[in-house]
Amino acid sequence: MPSLFKIAGRNLFRYKRRTALTLGLIALGVVFVSVFIAVTGSFKAMMIGQITDSFVGHLQIHRKGYLASIETLPLTLNLNPPAVKKAEQALQKTPGIEAYSPRIKFGAMFSNFMETSNIRLNGVFPQRETATVPMFPSRIHQGKPTITPGEMIVPELLAAGMKVKVGDTVVIIATNKDGSVNGKQFTVAGIIEPATGPGGRDGYIHIEDAMEVLRMDQMEVSEIAVRVKDFSRLHAAFNTLEGGLSQEKNKAGKPIFEVHTWEKLSPFYNISRMIDVMTLFIQLMLIAIVLISIMNVMIMAVYERVREIGTMAAIGTLPGKILSLFMVEGFVLGLLGALSGSLIGGAVIYIINLSKITFSFGRQEGMILSAGIDPVDLLMISGIVICISILASLQPAIKASRMDPIRALGYV
Amino acid sequence: MQLIIAEDLSKTYPMGQVTVDALKGLNFSIEKGSFVSFVGPSGSGKTTLLNLMGCLDRPSAGRLTVAGTEVAGLNRKDAARFRGKNIGFIFQSFNLIPVLSAFENVEYPLIMVQHVPGDERKRRVIELLDAVGMIDHSHQLPDQLSGGQKQRVAVARALVTHPDLVLADEPTANLDHDTAYGIIRLMKKIRKEVRTTFVFSTHDIRIIDEVEQIFRIEDGMLKTEG
Questions:
Q1: Neighbouring-strand partners of residue A122
Q2: In B32-170, which ranges are E strands?
Q3: Contact B77 A318 (CB under 8 A)
Q4: Are A215 and A249 in the same domain?
Q5: Contact across the interface for B100 and A7, Cβ inside 8 Å
Q6: Which of A318, A319, A317, A325 shows the shortest CA–CA distance to A301?
Q7: Is residue A260 part of a domain?
């Protein structure tokens, strides 16, 4: 084998310009793909972080059927106290759960005594909510970043539209699940900026106030938002949790709970999927570049070295060895292209990070692009390039190995 | 002892709608260790015969035995193995591998064909390069060598595997008079040392004068033997 590599290397070096051009093309493809993956990956990670850490959480537990009716925030589909207890027990048994926050969500009327508008409200335990969605306090840009009973955090758009300021008194009027209307005064403790996606324009009150407004004797929660310790282990946690909760049945023998990851809860998941599809197409383009360039070079190499092939065959070189020789050339081209492309790609990613490029997502502005590529992804790209290089060399190599020595020796 | 035995050996080629009889029922034998030449005009069938003896081609009819093996029945792989083990080739255009040095060209069949271990390989290559007077040029690439030097390297490459038979197709055609003589004398000298059979195809009078046995071919038929 070392001799095969030696001969292959020298043959590649023999046509320096052509080899350099091919390597350049492959390297450029690898750079393009790795930078694309790094940038889009960073974009995806930041967006997912924004959505999950601002309000959605990594997972949510609801009563079965709640998600289908989530637009109306139906109080009749809340989890009753025994169900909440069961969910909490399941959460405690599930490894990798960092925090969870029960929420009572409901629609209400919001009044500043001059005007009235509708509002979606979340009754939460502020500390548990912060532990579950850590960016929650940072979204409160006026007032204090938490709430106590009797206080309310008003969404920015509503506050601006109804000219409500921190410290003002407002009234919340809501109908409970029995149809009874109730109202309560609140002091505006903070103004919260919207975030992209569902729930991004919701107001917040303490969960005890939500129970009071809705005249709940016992806490009936609309959802439990869950945060996992390691986001890369999200689906493992989801499977364990869902596996545990799916065993819980109501009297009719139907499941009580439904568990969803952020992917099901946020429309951004579709954008994330689109990015993945785009990445796939970019990878296909890379494959095409490598396939065409290597095949072209190897076909040329075979035509230029017909007499050499004939000589090798006449001397007694087995067809398999001749095949290997050309495939090794393709492999070396792919390997060098992948290596140089990975190195240049790494350098470009480093420069992008040094440049501190900023972008906006929804209302979030000045987010710094932090491009990074997983070594596994880089290995995968290099692996694809090398495999395609070998594959592209196969046809010319077979042609060389099957060449009739007499014709090859007489080739001019 | 007979190294090559041909019995009613024929070779036909399809050429468009017609069939060309390149060799027509040849019968001959060649002794082991002899220095033999097939001579004849261009198109007489010399190269075709050498291709058959070198297992590069198959006869259309008849029998051909080389080093005790009936070579007509060998498949592609077995023929390659047989060539690697038993036959050395010297070509008119030298056919050295351009990316390998003189040393590596001679070493090539030992690595790629016979898989000879490193030390033994090195010893044999040096011995042969010395024998052909190319030891001082062993690190030069073919395009840095003259025609005569290239052919010396080609002779060393043909002999390094210790073949029973060396086939040389017009080995002096691209060489000047003095160089051609030098190559012939070299082959003759080595032949005596290693007891290898040399078979040429040529119409070069310089070779004809040096060989021990001449087969004359015309129109695919053996005319005389001397």
A1: A105, A204
A2: 35-39, 61-66, 69-70, 87-90, 165-169
A3: yes
A4: yes
A5: yes
A6: A325
A7: no
